[in-house]
Amino acid sequence: MANSCLQLSGFLLSCLGWLCVMIAISTNDWVNMCKYGLNTCKKMDELGAKGPWADCVISTGLYHCVSLTQILDLPAYIQTTRALMITGSILGLPAVGMLLMSMPCISLSEPQSSKNRRAVLGGVLMLIVGLCALVSTVWFPIGAHQEHGLMSFGFSLYVGWVGTIFCLLGGAILTCCSSDSSSSSSHSYQENNRFYYSKQGGANPPAAASTNHAKSAHV
Q1: How many other C-beta atoms can be found within 10 angstroms of the C-beta atom of residue 127?
Q2: What is the DSSP track for 93-151?
Q3: pTM
Q4: For 165-174, what is each residue's pLDDT tens digit?
Q5: Would you give the distance in Å from CA 114 to the centre of its chain?
Q6: Does residue 139 carry a pLDDT above 80?
Q7: Do the beta carbons of residue 24 and residue 134 sit within 8 Å?
């Protein structure tokens, strides 16, 4: 029961983390920048937001974005962030599917060891998703700071960090619990077989004795 609860908790954390990663890569409020100082720009309601896909200008009643379409001219941190976040988003889909089919509440006509192996593989994929998001959400603000100077963290970056933590935590829980469950189930299966065969072996001599007794009585 405890192992099933841990698997369900890891599945929910992984799904929430993957959704947060998807939200982070689809928005552009990663870092907020200003040329006059952050406090001055907040008073003037003029801030610049930068993300993997566009540079935006935020002011009162205006939100204008310019798409970053020149791929070859982009800095390395933007290209790397795009590649890693897209990879993590794509890997999250089969990971969620495998984890869903390996949940204890889903009944499939297959041995438990197959479900455990599927859960371990899904947990490993979730760990990869978390690592991709971790590198992206750490490297992007560092690169933006080196390029533009003054800045503050945006909403999308915080969502990416939350998604990273959830993916890593959920993947670790699923990988550890499923492997332990697989070994313990196989061990208990062997113990049950051993007990069964020993019981059968112990029951044979009385059966033979009763047969001999019947023969002697007949004679």
Answers
A1: 20
A2: HHHHHHHHHTSTTS--SS-HHHHHHHHHHHHHHHHHHHHHHHHHHHHHHHHHHHHH--E
A3: 0.74
A4: 999 999 998 8
A5: 20
A6: yes
A7: no
